[in-house]
Amino acid sequence: EKAVNLKKDLAEMQEWMTQAEEEYLEKDFEYKSPEELENAVEEMKRAKEDVLQKEVRVKILKDNIKMLATKVPSSGQDLATELNVVLENYQLLCNRIRGKCHTLEEVWSCWIELLQYLDLETVWLNNLEERVQMTENLPDKLDAVNDALESLESVLRHPADNRTQIRELGQTLIDGGILDDIISEKLEAFNARYEELSHLAVSRQIALEQQLQTMRETDHMLQVLQENLAELDRQLTSYLTDRVDAFQMPQEAQ
């Protein structure tokens, strides 16, 4: 009777493993929204816990069959063969569910990381847009133009590492058919805004550099003119002080 019960327990265990494999490993999942992906991650975590909890039951079956084999070798030998099959299938099921759970957790982590990088770059784009707007309607002063140019250039020196991560993470998820529509939409919007603002910022940078160069050249010309006028004023003052007749002065002084 004990052998019959153990044989029944082995059959039930094998049936449960077959159902678990069909439910958790053979279903075709399509992750079209973050909610679906998150639910799948949580489901696989529960599946992993559920399967691992059966380890106690498997151990009890193993111990009982070993004990029976010492008392009734003939019956125990047959059950031991069936037990080995169940143990092998159980270990395989554990490994596969662990693997799928790990994969889904990695995918979810990849999605969260992508969102974080997008948030970082969006903050940078907002800052860049603000700096570009600050270059409009500047006072016609050298210091103001120079400060605006330096401020814009400091933002443009932003490293490209984050954008590389966004591209690679997004492509990895899209290639796996995971959240592909949502990610494609997000990347398209981000790239379009990045290209538009970058081109605008570089154009403003070039314009400010040209404006600054022109203002510096104008300032230099005014400085030379002021120096010449000051020298002329000094000469004229000396002529007046010495009561020199106008016709005795050099022609430029006249």
Helix/strand layout:
Layout: H1 2-24, H2 34-71, H3 73-134, H4 142-156, H5 161-175, H6 180-241
Keywords:
rod-shaped; mainly alpha; Methane Monooxygenase Hydroxylase, Chain G, domain 1; Spectrin_repeat; 6 helices; coiled coil; Spectrin/alpha-actinin; 254 residues; UTRO protein
Outline the structure in words.
The chain is built from six helices and no strands. The chain is an all-alpha fold and 254 residues long. The chain has one domain (1-211): Methane Monooxygenase Hydroxylase, Chain G, domain 1, CATH 1.20.58.60. The radius of gyration is 40 Å and the shape is rod-shaped. InterPro entries: Spectrin/alpha-actinin, Spectrin_repeat. Residues 3-64, 208-242 form a coiled coil.
What is this structure, in a nutshell?
Keywords: Coiled coil. The chain is mainly alpha-helical and 254 residues long.
